[in-house]
Specification:
The protein is an all-alpha fold. It has helices at about 1-40, 45-55, 60-75. It is elongated, with a radius of gyration of 22 Å.
Length: about 80
């Protein structure tokens, strides 16, 4: 009996994962469409992606990353 229950539970987990994967793909397609629309309006999508990454970071991590980037740029004569 527990084998049947375990198999049913496993099947339900797999089905949930499959549905979420489908939703994830749909959302990724929507994001790609927004970037394409922004690009068609003259925005630089590479820069937009960098801004999105920065906004996801906590302030202290962002400050640390920017300080490190500035240090590397100065070391290479890019600052």
């Amino acid at each position: 009996m527990s084998d049947i229950i375990a198999a049913d539970q496993l099947r339900l987990f797999i089905e949930r994962i499959e549905r979420l994967e489908e939703e994830k793909k749909a959302i990724a397609d929507d994001i790609r469409d927004v970037y394409a629309e922004a690009k068609s309006n003259g925005y630089d999508t590479k820069t937009m992606r960098a801004i999105v990454r920065l906004r996801k970071m906590e302030k202290h991590h962002r400050d640390e990353a920017e300080a490190l980037l500035d240090t590397y740029k100065a070391a290479l004569g890019l600052a």
